[in-house]
Amino acid sequence: MDDDLPAGRPADTATARTDPLTTAAAAATATTTATATATATATATATATATAAPALLPAEIIRRKRDGQALDDGQIQAFVDGLVAAPGTAGHWGDAQVGALAMATVLRGMAPAETVALTRAMTRSGRVLDWSDAALARAVGDRGPVLDKHSTGGIGDKVSLVLAPLVAACGGCVPMISGRGLGHTGGTLDKLEALPGYAVDAAPARWQAALREAGCAIIGAGADLAPADRRLYAIRDVTATVESLPLITASILSKKLAAGLQGLVMDVKTGNGAFMARAEDARALARTLVQVAAGAGLRCEARVSDMSQPLGWTAGNALEVAECLDLLCGRAAEPRLRALTLALSARLLCIGGLAADEADAQARLARALDSGAAAERFARMVRSLGGPADVLRDPQLAAAPVVRDVPAPHDGVLAAIDTRAVGLVVVALGGGRARAGQAIDGRVGLSAWRPLGAGLARGEPLCRVHAADAAAAQAAVAALQAACTLAPVGTPVVLPPDGDWVNA
Ligand code: URA
Predict the structure, then answer these.
(1) What is the pTM of this model?
(2) Whose C-alpha in 55, 73, 152, 283 is 20 to 30 A from the C-alpha of 266?
């Protein structure tokens, strides 16, 4: 059942849709998650029935969640309305109130029906694209199925930058609504902003022109798509409130549902660099995402991928873009990064009906990479969105002034990495944010990262630090040495499982 539209909401194609999440509540209710939130959720559901509906005052809503009670649809809608209401207007929630509810949610969890209600309210906080709308289809040149991929966040996770043009080169239309770095993880928009002039906040006419030109456009949600998530995401980033199954689910799916996708692959990270460090929590998140998406009519499959080491050779914005250019142009490819990108892309081609099966998809993807077609799509997208005119040959990426190797303190085999600590090193170098809205330094980060299981002689580099000054480089070297465990030579290193798929 559709709720009334909030005042001021664009009366566009969104209004014509039946609420896609109505059935998702039923689907999601069937899922019992094995996460740390399960106990709190059960308490919340049980207590909710015993309490009369309270007022919609922010403090009352926060108190309910703090005390482990479930929020009803009206209370969740009041919270989401409060995220988008202008400061000083009725119903606006201040940053402290938003942070408090986010923290209460991290600690108390949400029942499946609350997660669905939150996803629905956040999706409808702005415009919802409808690709059956003739004007929109014409604006992007009547391209193929509307597909996308999203990751729950990691260190060195640059898959989106390769996957979007690759899938576009195979016939997909990829309006990829991406995010900024969150906590210790990097963000696709921050990476793209390392390209001078690239407009991550392009207005609709501009990103639609990029889609027409390139078949893909990686952009921010902008002011009109899921604006509630934009604000909540920024506050969660700096209030230690990222790690929450309902908040992550609503954040991701609100953007994806607002983009009106026809197919989605989710890359749910697990391991010590992920928000869901425990494999069972990551699988629970994957199941919830797939079920809530399916309930909304969005075909989605989720892969649980290992993040117990950085992905690829680099972490840090400009360095990651350079690594992607190497992959797209066939110059060099770190094997795990290439394999994950191809696995996610292949599944997306199958979901979108662009390949008959996995083998067919892999053959198409290999052709698009080897022929340079995917690189050409990336170049067109960057040019259309204001970045360098010839990004493949002259990406104009700024370099950090100080570069230092991180020497292995003794001989050994790289047996464990504190991947979260590695992400925090990139943040400390200036490559991520400690405060909402903080400017970041696109030049800094890490390169030449060695994988788990690598054998190193004393003094051989674990990786290389790129820093703004010598003091920052020195602090990073020490922190990275502390983050890496070198076991005696010959110690077998068992890599965690990587690549389970969860289907609807
Ligand atoms: N990615 C998102 O878009 N939102 C989250 O909450 C986490 C990862």
Answers:
(1) 0.85
(2) 73
Answer yes or no: do 163 and 212 share one domain: yes
Q: Is the minimum distance from the CB of 251 to ligand 1 under 6 angstroms?
A: yes
As a whole number of angstroms, the distance between CA 388 and CA 391 comes to: 5
Least confident of 36-45, 199-208, 442-451: 36-45
Mutate to test the pocket of ligand 1, among 155, 235, 248, 292 (most ligand atoms within 8 A of CB): 248
Whether 406 and 345 share a structural domain: no
**pLDDT (tens digit per residue) in 288-318:** 999 999 988 899 999 999 999 999 999 999 9
CA 251 to ligand 1: nearest atom: 4
CA gap 162, 174 in Å, rounded: 12
In a shared domain, residues 285 and 411: no
Instruction: Find the CATH number of the domain harbouring 375.
Output: 3.40.1030.10
Cα four-point dihedral sign 308, 163, 462, 423: negative
- Say if residue 265 is in the same domain as residue 187: yes
Is the CB of residue 266 below 6 angstroms from any atom belonging to ligand 1?
Answer: no
Look up the domain containing 444 and give its range. Answer: 402-487
Would the CB of 182 count as within 6 Å of ligand 1?
A: yes
